[in-house]
Design brief:
It is a single chain. This protein is of the alpha+beta class and 118 residues long. The protein contains 4 helices and 2 strands; from the N terminus they run E-H-E-H-H-H. Strands 1-2 form a two-stranded parallel sheet. The longest helix has 17 residues, at 54-70. The termini are far apart. 4% of the residues are buried.
Length: 118
Amino acid sequence: MERCTFDNASVIVINLTLQFLSPAVRQVLLQNVYDALVPGCILLLSEKVVHADSDLDELQQDFYYRFKKENGYSQLEISQKREALENVLIPETCEQHLARLQQVGFDKIDIWLKWLKK
């Protein structure tokens, strides 16, 4: 990964990015972000997540695929995208994300959006 530099930032947005990086690189990137943020700053982080509970994870996937279908995606398109992202997009649980954020120094962390609904 190329070195990303941040300096004196008040807001940093990471949108659906960490899931495409190895866990070790995720840690380094978030540490660089934390170190660059000024006091009173904010990091807005959005990622696809999985549940540690397999039943909840399956339920979330079902809702996601239903959402895609309701928005015009065919079953073939949904399957092709799922296969294309397999072993490329590696999501983690909310708990894993929260632990990593705490490890790099963030102490006020909140999940402000979890489910999307039409």
